[in-house]
Amino acid sequence: MNARAILSADGRPPGADGRRLVQPAGGEGWPPPPHDPRERELALVVAGWEVRLFVGRKFEYFVARGFWHLQLWHPEARVSVLTPSRLTRGLYEAYPIENWKAQAPDYDKLAALLDGLFTARLPEASTVLRLERALVDEVVRGSGGVAS
Predict the structure, then answer these.
(1) 17: Cβ–Cβ under 8 A, 6 or more apart, which residues?
(2) Distance between CA 148 and CA 64 in Å, rounded?
(3) Fewest 10 Å CB contacts: which of 21, 31, 50, 70?
(4) Backbone dihedral region for residue 131 (phi beyond 0: left; psi -120 to 50: alpha; all else: beta)
(5) Contact between 88 and 103 (Cβ < 8 Å)
(6) How does pLDDT run across 98-130, given as a tens digit for each residue?
């Protein structure tokens, strides 16, 4: 499979049938960077999903360059979602989808991409958008950094 999964017209990667539950790659069962949740600090938990953020020098680096984002990590399902930033070319990015990453342009397509592949349901769109606004947009705006 290519480095990025291509979404079909219905928002799912080709061959996604809802029965496939893949084990994250990256040795020891952890996803590869930038999806490894151990790289970030736990900020809060929403509907079973951990909201994780960079701190310290990584925070400074990512905010100033438009790479600032948040990670949603579901520890039981072992699913990672990165919110849009320059790091993901302005798209949501989920891992693991067919043993790699897949991207979606908006929350609805992201939810459709994950639906049926994992037992974990994303928090509601309004919750995710509120988190993005408070923890990404406002942080970037307040820092004078590049908007993601």
Answers:
(1) none
(2) 10
(3) 21
(4) alpha
(5) yes
(6) 889 999 999 999 999 999 898 899 999 999 999
